[in-house]
Amino acid sequence: MSSQIKNCYRGRAVRPLKPQDWCDRLMNLREQERKSARIFLVGMCAFLALILGFPTIANIWFSFNDVTFHNLTGEGYSGLANYREALSNPKLWEALGYSLKFGVICTVFEVGFALLLVFILHPLLLRRPWLTAIIMMPMMVSPALMGVMYRLVLNEFVGIVPGYLDMIGVTMNFLSLKHIQFTVIAIEVLQWTPFAFLILLTARQSLPYDLEEAAAVDGATGMRLNIMVVLPLITPAIIIVSFIRFIDSFRVFDHIFVLTGGGPGNSTTSLSIYIYKLFFKQNDLGPAVALSMTLLIASLALLYFGLKLAVRRNDR
């Protein structure tokens, strides 16, 4: 093979590539990468349009028409009447206030616990990465199933936890009006702290080891290293995961609906549960869909500004 190659180039002068030739080749390679990226992007957008396009268009149409379960085609164009009716209901603002309070409290505890776990467990997980899978287990359970499980475990009469507390002389009904707020927040935090932990752990492990060595030379080790060096560097990840967890907690539905149904009374009625009751129990399809579209737009806007803030922070 080598002799054939020599014979092929025998008598020919091999011209070395000029810098301009290298630039041209590099530009061609980048153009090919852009074309490939456009092809994949078009495919992804087509898939999203196919899956989400029709429901979104249908919901927009429902929100501007007077529709019921008996007449989904609508009794006529109502304009912004559905939005005015939905926003003028006092129960909406009660549900909105509860969702905001629930989202903020859960986000603070989830991100705070996740950050503390990252600081403490990072050296251990470098040696035993399989422990990460164990920490992720609560996140793998369906929220509705989590609600059913805790409804049985915390039941006042047959629950395991109240039974053991009663044996030591402590009587507590976790599903009563007095303790239900703590219960639903604790369940949310226990289930979704692993998600925040996974994002922050990934950001922590992506930091170059040279920074830790330089900080160690300057005397920054342990918790001082985490606070002075690690924390500022993973701030963009903290911002992103905080916005994601706030949006998800703000839209909470599954485990609260299974556990309490929004009760006792309306004490745990989140905005999502309020929209569900408005849609399925009160047959007010127009206002319910109008609220859903408003919630979708607000969530997308909040996520957009969160990502923009994180990118701007990272560019600094």
Description:
The chain is mainly α and 316 residues long. The chain has two domains: 19-63; 81-315, MetI-like (MetI-like fold, Orthogonal Bundle). The protein has 14 helices and no strands. Helix 4 (90-127) crosses helix 11 and helix 13 (271-281) packs antiparallel against helix 14 (285-315). The longest helix has 45 residues, at 19-63. The radius of gyration is 28 Å and the shape is flat. The two termini are 55 Å apart. 24% of the residues are buried.
Question: Which percent range fits the helix content?
Answer: over 70%
Bulk shape: flat
CATH superfamily of the largest domain: MetI-like
Biggest sheet descriptor: none
**Total tally of structural domains:** 2
Q: What is the helix tally?
A: 14
Our measurement of the CA-to-CA distance between the termini, rounded to an integer number of angstroms, reads 55 Å
Overall pLDDT: 82
Taking pLDDT < 50 over at least 5 consecutive residues as the criterion, the unreliable ranges are none
Computed over alpha carbons, the radius of gyration is 28 Å
Share of β-strand residues: under 5%
Structural class: mainly alpha
CATH architecture of the largest domain: Orthogonal Bundle
DSSP strand tally: 0
**What is the H/E order?**
HHHHHHHHHHHHHH
Reading off the top of the CATH hierarchy, the class of the largest domain is best stated as Mainly Alpha
At the fold tier of CATH, the topology name of the largest domain is: MetI-like fold
